[in-house]
């Protein structure tokens, strides 16, 4: 399953054998490059030390080298096909997976692909200007690596739309380049992808929390009975892992530098010493975590139940689940607001699949908080970071329209307004963080508000010239 880079569009799906599809994608390619030029990274560079996929296998699948960003070879890569793969869940369980779209599920599959695909260019747009304030060449390179891979993930979804959904699919692929993050007239489909990412603390939080949502959404689509979608998502997950690494270690380094300044100056008030106070870090966690929870949708969903029953979208690690994979009799417990208090509610498991996936995500997010608190403890800081209650600052689902404190207490509007500035970033917090965002482009140097990384990229030293201007 090595990738053919002799083609105008690198691929391992035999585009050369389908002239009609190849022409359609080659006509879309200039529009993509125009979008990249207008909405991609704003910082001019000569080239960047990037990894480029050369194989879809588990080992040795990437090549590293300096590449000019506009010349990056975006392409279409699917994981290797398993000829014996069977549908693992739902009413078609045990039957061979589909290589074509069943007519009765055409609209639903197209919608799933469009919503996923729309998130990929959105994050590039959100991060467009971050290079202008990069804290180091190491971080700048990681930003650009994330950007080019999000662009490739867009290609992955566009290929499916072109290859399997005819004129409607081509129109949807065109529309992905017409919507823009934050646009009043044509915003991105999901709310979190219309939020600003104006600073590097926001970027680290985004790649930790929001890209982690992407991991779980891709994980459910990887289970799909539509095999080309499954194989596409399987390979995307390999690349997505780096994005979450950037977020995890980025927050690690911010927390470490904050703890260093707290110990050095014996105070929590480290803003005047050029650091990001711990309470501000917590506010950014609260915001990005709660916004990312909204991406999972409402706790109950008949649409998602229908997707599962039809075999379109499974659960996280479906085949490891020890149940009948049908869920017709299973029940689940979710939280909601009832008679002025937060209470448990038992529901059919089929309709609570969003809550099931969100629970997997929450457990994963908690591992990062454990890491960050271990760093704080190592510096003698006994104020732990935490994940707020699942109902905090929610705009979607059972807690939408209610006010919940980070600790889980139900509040009236007055109490919420009184506490908001303690829990969410204020204009003053954002202004302080933004004031620290001064670019550092000298090899080996790093901004004073963040600790250096533990290791370089691809066994390169930290003072390697990852980006040439």
UniProtKB/TrEMBL annotation:
Molecular-function GO terms, alphabetical:
oxidoreductase activity
Question: Which of the seven top EC classes does this enzyme belong to?
Answer: oxidoreductase
SUPFAM superfamilies this protein is in? Ferritin-like
Q: Which domain of life is it from?
A: Bacteria
Assigned EC number: 1.14.13.208
Record's keyword terms, sorted: Oxidoreductase
Annotated protein name in UniProt: Benzoyl-CoA 2,3-dioxygenase component B
Q: Which organism is it from?
A: Streptosporangium lutulentum
């Amino acid at each position: 399953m090595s990738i053919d880079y002799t083609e105008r569009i690198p691929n391992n799906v035999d585009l050369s054998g389908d002239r009609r599809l190849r022409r359609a994608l080659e006509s879309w390619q200039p529009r993509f490059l125009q979008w990249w030029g207008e909405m991609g990274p704003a910082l001019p560079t000569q080239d960047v030390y990037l990894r480029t996929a050369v194989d879809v296998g588990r080992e040795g699948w990437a090549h590293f080298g300096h590449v000019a960003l506009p010349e990056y070879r975006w392409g279409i890569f699917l994981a290797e096909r398993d000829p014996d793969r069977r549908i693992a869940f739902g009413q078609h369980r045990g039957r061979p997976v589909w290589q074509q779209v069943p007519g009765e599920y055409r609209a639903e599959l197209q919608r799933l692909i469009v919503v996923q695909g729309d998130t990929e260019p959105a994050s590039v747009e959100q991060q467009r200007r971050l290079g202008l304030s990069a804290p180091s060449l190491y971080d700048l390179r990681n930003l650009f690596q994330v950007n080019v891979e999000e662009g490739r993930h867009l290609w992955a979804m566009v290929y499916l739309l072109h290859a399997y959904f005819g004129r409607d699919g081509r129109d949807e692929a065109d529309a992905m380049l017409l919507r823009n993050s934050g646009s009043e007239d044509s915003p991105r489909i999901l709310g979190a992808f219309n939020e600003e990412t104006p600073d590097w603390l926001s970027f680290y939080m985004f790649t930790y929390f929001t890209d982690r949502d992407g991991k779980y959404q891709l994980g459910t689509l990887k289970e799909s009975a539509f095999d080309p979608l499954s194989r596409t998502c399987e390979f995307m997950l390999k690349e997505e892992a780096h994005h979450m690494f950037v977020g995890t270690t980025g927050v690690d380094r911010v927390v470490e530098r904050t703890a260093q300044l707290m110990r050095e100056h014996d105070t929590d008030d480290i803003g005047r010493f050029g650091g990001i106070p711990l309470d501000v870090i917590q506010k950014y966690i609260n915001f990005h975590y709660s916004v990312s929870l909204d991406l999972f949708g409402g706790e109950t969903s008949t649409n998602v139940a229908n997707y599962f029953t039809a075999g379109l979208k499974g659960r996280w690690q479906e085949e490891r689940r020890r149940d009948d994979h049908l869920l017709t009799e299973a029940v689940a417990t979710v939280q909601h607001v009832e008679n002025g208090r937060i209470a448990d509610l038992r529901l059919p498991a089929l309709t609570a699949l969003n809550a099931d996936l969100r629970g997997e995500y929450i457990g994963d997010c908690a591992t990062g908080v454990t890491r960050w608190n271990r760093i704080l403890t190592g510096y003698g800081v006994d104020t732990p970071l935490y994940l707020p209650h699942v109902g905090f600052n929610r705009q979607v689902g059972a807690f939408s329209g209610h006010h919940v404190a980070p600790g889980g207490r139900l509040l009236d509007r007055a109490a919420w307004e009184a506490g908001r500035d303690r829990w969410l970033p204020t204009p003053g917090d954002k202004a302080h963080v933004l004031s620290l965002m001064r670019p550092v482009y000298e090899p080996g140097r790093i901004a004073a508000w963040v600790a250096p990384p533990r290791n370089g990229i691809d066994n390169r030293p930290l003072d390697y010239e990852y980006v040439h201007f």
